[in-house]
Amino acid sequence: MSGWRRFGVVACLCGLCACAAPASHEEIQTVFDAGGKAYDAGDYKTAFAKWKSIEDVDLAAMRNLALMLRKGKGIKKDPAAALDLMEEAADAGLVTAQADLGEMLLTGEAGPPNAKAALPWLQSAAKAGHPGAAYNLGKLYEQGIAVPKDTEAARKFYRQAADAGMKEAEEALKTLPPPPDPSIHGT
Fold it and tell me: What's the pLDDT tens digit per position in 116-136?
């Protein structure tokens, strides 16, 4: 049992969080929202405990726990545990977790950077419309990392991210060479 999962067991035994997972969608939403309010107020320990109590029934709570472990908010920073939890949420189909997992793998937050392992997560999240994943894919295609170098693919992904409001993607588009002129045939 990993350290962060042991924390949850200890917290339940100590009465720091509700041990029984809420039964209804409304109860789960209430606990999730209470975690959000605690987090926004800077009470990270309470937020962590709230989300921990529903992680098995709420993917967003699972992702939030992973983010807290990733940043060390409310609990000791543990990138490896964050990666494991993020992967669990990503495997279950949470698009934001897929994008986060891809970024973590790309930057090497829990080990050496692994663009090849990040690629399918970024592709899945970008396909679902996640701008950060599209931006990261644009960078991979622009630089030819884990994929063949492809300026047009980079442009496509940067455009997707820019259209969603990412300023970094708009700036990246400006650095790419202009697209080929379709009116010129055979060069």
Answer: 999 999 999 999 999 999 999
